[in-house]
Amino acid sequence: MGLTEKEAAERLLAEGGNVFGESRKTGPMKIFLGQFKDIMVMILLAATVVSVLLGEISDAVTIILIVLLNAILGFVQEYRTEHTLEALRSMTSPTAKCWRDGRLKEIDAAKLVTGDIIELEAGDRIPADAVVLKAAGFFSDESILTGESTAVGKVAGDTADRDNSLNKSNIVYCGASATKGTCRAEVIATGKSTQMGRISEMLTDIDSEATPLQKRLAELGKAVAIICLVVCAAVFAAGVLRGENVFDMLMTGITIAIAAIPEGLPATVTIALALAVNRMLKQKALVNKLHSVETLGCTSVICSDKTGTITENRMTVTELSTVSEDYSFSGMGYRVSGAVTKGDNIAVNPITEKSLTEALRCGVLCSTAEIRVQEAPKSRNRGVLAGKGEWSVTGDPTEAALLIAAAKAGITRESLSDASRIIEEYPFDSETRFMAVHCVCGSEKRIYFKGAEEVLLPRCSQYMDESGNTAPMTAAVRRQLEEKVGEMSDKALRVLALAVCTSESFEPDRGNLMFLGFAGMTDPPREEAKTAIRKCASASVKTVMITGDHKKTAVAVAKKAGLLKGGMAITGAELDKLTDDELDRNIGKYTVFARVEPVHKLRIVKSFKRRGEIVTMTGDGVNDAPAVKEADVGVAMGVTGTDVTKQAADVILMDDNLATLVNAVEQGRCVYANIRKFVRYLLSCNIGEVLTMFLGIVMGMPIILLPVQILLVNLVTDGLPAVALGMEPPESDIMSRPPRRSGEGFFAGGLMWKIVIRGVFIGLSTLASFTAVMRMGGSLEACRTAALITLVVSQLIHVFECRSERRSVFRMNPFGNMKLVGAVVLSVAVLAAAVMIPQLQMVFSTVTPNIAQLLTALGFSFAIPLVSSLIM
């Protein structure tokens, strides 16, 4: 049986090993050096060199520390992404039980080749794609590939089949795990040819793109570079035309240009992002990549998985139908609450409902699952189980759902233990498609059945009526039951048939079963997900559901979750019939994508991106990893997600909840708004400083501020106040605005004009203060001190103006951000110390201003917001 070692060696040489392709690795040093390609960083490095040449060593050290901090953070983030494919490789089994030379051997899974015969049993990781030759109750968990949470039964089919497409009952797939039974299979695909290998190739082919924030900061860096060159050239030209020394004017121009560089900007951006990451972690969203926080804020499309994200991933019985009555079960998931009702919400006493009681008894006895209450219920009354706890579940979720439904009617395994004793169990088999238990119930023996309705219903020759009596299964009753199955299926309920027979021996094929009922169960939408979807709609963010489930199931869940309003559903097979151009034109019509495979998910994400959308993609299985990595923001599930998906993702939801993701989108919008706020603040301040120095030189005035005083200004205004501005809480209407367009510039909405005009006001008021004190007869040191006070105080006032782009400073609560208030108070204290303490006066060349000089400086500072509020 199987190949010989010689045949296997020849095929291994021809086909290659059963391993995934190597990723295009980037060395650590290359990743680290790549952090210095940003234009803003290059400008800062150039400023460092110039600062050293001018003897400003403290400036140089500060800038270098900022650059290194950002480089280290960027390196750590990028280096982690290099391990994604390594985690993918670890999903393959290290060894395999394989027939070679007629003997069963355990070999390295990497040496498997096509034609090898492998043996599998419960607990094994499947090492390659293989066609089933023989199976005994074999089930495989393929959720990492297909997204479907229930184990899939495998049966022997066409042994010559070499098509390893997904969702085939006669094929086992590499990376999936065996959950039950045994199987013998012939390997038909290894390495890159397996479904897992194809996913590996997709990951390898996806290149990382710059985030919107990185693109905007690059634009800002170019703008700053142009400003520096213009300032340097203008000052140099003005001085030379006045007859100044060429070298001196060159150095002066460079010095002023360096003052124009917002050297605190990279650090402030990093701090703002880090603070947002911390806030998101408290809301159960773990961020892998720092810049993805801001990208979340401009998300325009959320592609969400269904199971566990939109739904609870907890099967729940919602209906149970007997021949005579339809019963409803309230309470969702594993919560210890719920009631049994019938008709127009009429409460049911299970004691009087004989057919219901017997059907639920069948569901309890015909089960291997276990449930227990984590917190004791407060009371149990007339079919209602009340309490604040949850059921703790072990075993098959479908069987657990039946146990919980019975518990809502007061029927538990413990309550049945005295009256019913199981003497033999017949496990569920993928060929028979039912489970049975032989019980002793009082003085008689019964066999309870639970399984597929199309298997058990034809074997039922009787049914139990509402009084608990036996009645014959007529053609009319059978048609009624078949119609009921159709109705339940249309509601995307998974239908199980429950039946019983009185017999001394297990003979299910005799057709002597008595029908008890149909149990309809579903994986209900999370209530938080419904709210999150509505919140996304109000924020103009499109939410779409991408699932491996059947179209009918997906549509039903989408309707309950509020996703199908004005939208349509499409399957993966239907997607295959569309060209990329056709898909791009029509993709906006769809809100549900059902029965999709990994390649479809990747194609959907790419199509949305081609339309200019910023796409956030959620996923948990390996099948989701390529699309998660391709998306602008990839989001993995922290509870159910595989390591591969988590490492490919930018964000991990610790509770697998769509509502958590929407909260993260809100934080992303907030952090981008805050970055705009402190960019506005920093650039306005720097323009004011440059204009002050530049106009002073052009007008033939003495140097307005000394280099050490400029350093002091940057110290007290570019530091803590800017960081505190990055902690500004989100504005109340932030999630009622549409997301910004992907091509929108950083200075959109007139931000640049606000920056320039405010910077001009700051510069002019500083010059006016210097001139006014000079006319009062003040010394040059007193004039510079007044200019210093005006420059600093006007900037600290401006920081409050920057808290909102829509409201003036007079319409905002000044104490809405107490961290900002504290930072400003500290900055004022530093300024006061610099102009009042003799030792610091010597360092900064300042003097204590008299009352007139102080009032003049403060007057020009406070006049600016009054004027700007009238103009802007």
Kindly state the mean pLDDT as a whole number?
82
Question: What would you call the quaternary organization?
Answer: single chain
Number of β-strand runs: 30
**First and last CA, distance:** 85 Å
Percentage of residues in strands: 15-25%
Query: Shape, please?
Result: elongated
Structural class of the helix and strand makeup? Answer: alpha+beta
The helix count comes to 32
Biggest pleated sheet: 11 strands, mixed
User: Which percent bin holds the helix content?
Assistant: 40-55%
Low-confidence stretches: 88-93, 376-387
What would you report as the Rg, rounded to the nearest angstrom? 36 Å
Description:
This protein has 32 helices and 30 strands. Strand 10 and strand 11 form a beta hairpin. Helix 3 runs parallel beside helix 8 and helix 29 packs parallel to helix 32.
